[in-house]
C-alpha cells in the first residue's frame, strides 16, 4: 500500500463542510472590505524567494521544496503567498491600475519542516495584500479584516500583538545596539543565532530556543530606535485600532520570520494549540516590490493558516459549522418506482434542489438508513401505489410532519418553486 507523504493530510468528504465554512467566511469578509481574489502559480522561479523572502530566513535556508525542471531551471513550490503576489503585481503592470490594489488568496503552501499540530508540510493559507498605500489606515484596515474574520468564525478571545520594526535606517541603529548588548553571550547562543548575528541580528529576537530567549530577554527595544516618521506611523496605527475597537498588546519581541517586513508587524495568538500559538501574522513590506525588480510600492498584508485555525476552533468547541446535508431523498420499491425516482431526482437537480436516490440496489430499509446517514431533510418512499396515484408523501426528518407531493409537479420545469411553496428546505 502507498501511504500519504509525511506532513500532508487528506481532506475527507466528512470534513469538507469545515473547510467550506472557513473559506466561504474568508471570501465574504474579504469582499466586504473591498478585496478581490488573486491566484498565482503553485511554483515560481527559486530566485523570487531568495530575493523576496530573504536568504537568512528559515524558509529559504531549511524549508523550501526546490527542484530543477527538465529545462534546467530552478523552481520552488510556493512556501508563502506574498512573494508570488508581488511578482504578479509587477509582471502584470498592476501598479498602473487602480490603487490601492486589494487582493486576497486561499492557497496551498509548502514547507519542509517537522510536522506538528496545525502545521503541515503542505498547508493552506488565507492571505490578503494591499498595495499602494503607505498610510497607517491601510495597516489598520488589514488588521481589522483579520480581526473581523477571526471573530466571525468564532474566535473572539485571541490576543493581537503589535510591534514596529521601523525602516532600514531605524534597524541599522537598533542592530548595532543589539549586537553590543549580546556581546560575549553570542557563544552561548544557538548556531542559527550566531549565523544571524552578522547577517540579520534582528532575527535573533525571533529565536524559539529557550537559552537564546533568556539572553535577549532584556535586550533594547526596537521601538526606542524608531525614526520620527516610523514612530508617527506606529502611533497613528495604535490610535486607529483603538478607535475601531480592536484591542492589542504591544510586544517588542515580534519581528516575524521573513526579511521583507518593514514598520508594522503583528500576530494574532492563541494558547489553545500549545507553544506554536500564532494563528495569523502579517505586517508591512514597503521594499518587497523593489527587491524583486519593480518600482517602490508600499504594501501591507497578512497570512493565516487554515489548518491551525480549524484546530483552534475544534479545541475550543467554537466550530459552529454544520455538516452539509441533502434536501430530499427518494427511496424506491420496484423497477417502476426506481425509474420514477431517477426521473424526479434528475429534474430536481436541474432546478437547483439537492437530492439523491438509490444507486446501490438496496432494500427500502437500507435506503432509509442511508438517507439518515447523509442527513436528508425530507424522505419520500415511492412504490407501485405512489406511481399509479401520482402522489408521494415526503416526511420532514426534523419534525416528523408529512406533506403530499405531486409527481407530475416534481417532474415539471417549475419543480423547484413548487417544492419551496410546499415545504421548507435549503436552510
Please explain how this structure is put together:
By secondary structure, this protein is an alpha+beta fold. The chain contains 16 helices and 16 strands. The protein has helices spanning 16-32, 46-52, 58-63, 82-91, 136-153, 168-182, 191-199, 210-215, 228-243, 288-291, 306-315, 335-350, 364-373, 384-389, 407-410, 415-422; strands spanning 36-37, 43-45, 66-68, 74-77, 101-110, 122-131, 159-164, 249-250, 262-269, 278-284, 299-305, 328-332, 355-357, 378-382, 391-396, 402-406. The strands form 3 sheets. An 8-stranded mixed sheet has the order 1-5-6-11-10-9-7-8. Helix 1 runs antiparallel to helix 5 (136-153).
Topology:
Elements: H1 16-32, E1 36-37, E2 43-45, H2 46-52, H3 58-63, E3 66-68, E4 74-77, H4 82-91, E5 101-110, E6 122-131, H5 136-153, E7 159-164, H6 168-182, H7 191-199, H8 210-215, H9 228-243, E8 249-250, E9 262-269, E10 278-284, H10 288-291, E11 299-305, H11 306-315, E12 328-332, H12 335-350, E13 355-357, H13 364-373, E14 378-382, H14 384-389, E15 391-396, E16 402-406, H15 407-410, H16 415-422
Parallel strand pairs: 1-5, 7-8, 12-13, 12-14
Antiparallel strand pairs: 2-4, 3-4, 5-6, 6-11, 7-9, 9-10, 10-11, 14-15, 15-16
Helix pairs in contact: 1-5, 5-9
Amino acid at each position: 500500500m502507498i501511504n500519504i507523504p509525511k506532513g500532508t493530510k487528506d481532506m475527507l468528504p466528512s470534513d469538507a463542510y469545515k473547510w467550506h465554512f472557513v473559506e466561504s467566511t474568508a471570501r465574504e469578509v474579504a469582499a466586504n472590505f473591498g478585496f478581490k481574489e488573486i491566484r498565482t502559480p503553485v511554483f515560481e522561479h527559486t530566485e523570487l524567494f531568495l530575493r523576496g523572502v530573504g536568504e537568512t530566513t528559515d524558509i529559504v535556508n531549511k524549508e523550501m521544496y526546490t527542484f530543477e525542471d527538465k529545462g534546467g531551471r530552478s523552481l520552488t513550490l510556493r512556501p508563502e503567498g506574498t512573494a508570488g503576489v508581488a511578482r504578479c503585481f509587477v509582471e502584470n503592470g498592476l501598479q498602473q491600475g487602480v490603487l490601492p490594489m486589494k487582493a486576497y488568496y486561499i492557497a496551498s503552501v509548502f514547507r519542509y519542516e517537522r510536522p506538528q499540530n496545525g502545521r503541515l508540510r503542505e498547508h493552506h493559507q488565507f492571505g490578503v495584500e494591499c498595495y499602494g498605500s503607505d498610510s497607517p489606515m491601510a495597516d489598520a484596515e488589514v488588521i481589522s479584516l483579520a480581526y473581523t474574520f477571526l471573530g466571525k468564525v468564532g474566535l473572539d478571545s485571541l490576543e493581537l500583538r503589535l510591534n514596529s520594526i521601523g525602516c532600514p535606517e531605524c534597524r541599522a541603529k537598533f542592530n548595532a545596539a543589539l549586537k553590543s548588548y549580546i556581546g560575549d553571550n553570542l557563544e552561548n547562543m544557538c548556531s542559527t543565532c550566531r549565523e544571524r548575528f552578522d547577517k540579520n541580528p534582528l532575527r535573533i529576537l525571533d529565536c524559539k530556543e529557550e537559552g537564546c530567549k533568556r539572553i535577549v530577554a532584556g535586550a533594547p527595544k526596537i521601538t526606542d530606535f524608531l525614526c520620527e516618521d516610523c514612530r508617527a506611523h506606529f502611533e497613528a496605527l495604535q490610535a486607529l485600532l483603538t478607535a475601531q475597537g480592536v484591542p492589542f498588546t504591544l510586544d517588542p519581541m515580534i519581528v516575524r520570520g521573513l526579511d521583507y517586513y518593514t514598520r508594522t508587524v503583528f500576530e494574532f495568538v492563541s494558547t489553545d494549540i500549545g507553544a506554536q500559538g500564532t494563528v495569523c501574522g502579517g505586517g508591512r513590506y514597503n521594499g518587497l516590490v523593489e527587491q524583486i525588480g519593480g518600482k517602490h510600492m508600499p504594501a501591507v498584508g497578512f497570512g493565516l493558516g487554515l489548518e491551525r485555525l480549524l484546530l483552534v476552533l475544534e479545541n475550543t468547541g467554537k466550530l459552529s459549522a454544520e455538516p452539509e446535508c441533502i434536501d430530499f431523498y427518494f427511496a424506491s420499491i420496484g423497477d417502476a418506482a426506481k425509474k420514477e425516482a431517477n426521473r424526479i431526482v434528475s429534474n430536481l437537480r436541474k432546478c437547483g434542489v439537492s437530492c439523491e436516490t438509490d444507486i446501490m440496489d438496496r432494500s427500502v430499509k437500507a435506503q432509509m438508513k442511508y438517507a439518515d446517514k447523509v442527513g436528508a431533510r425530507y424522505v419520500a418512499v415511492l412504490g407501485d401505489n405512489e406511481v399509479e396515484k401520482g402522489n408521494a408523501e415526503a416526511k420532514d426528518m426534523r419534525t416528523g410532519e408529512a406533506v403530499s407531493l405531486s409527481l407530475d409537479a416534481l417532474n415539471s420545469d417549475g419543480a423547484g418553486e413548487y417544492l419551496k411553496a410546499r415545504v421548507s428546505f435549503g436552510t
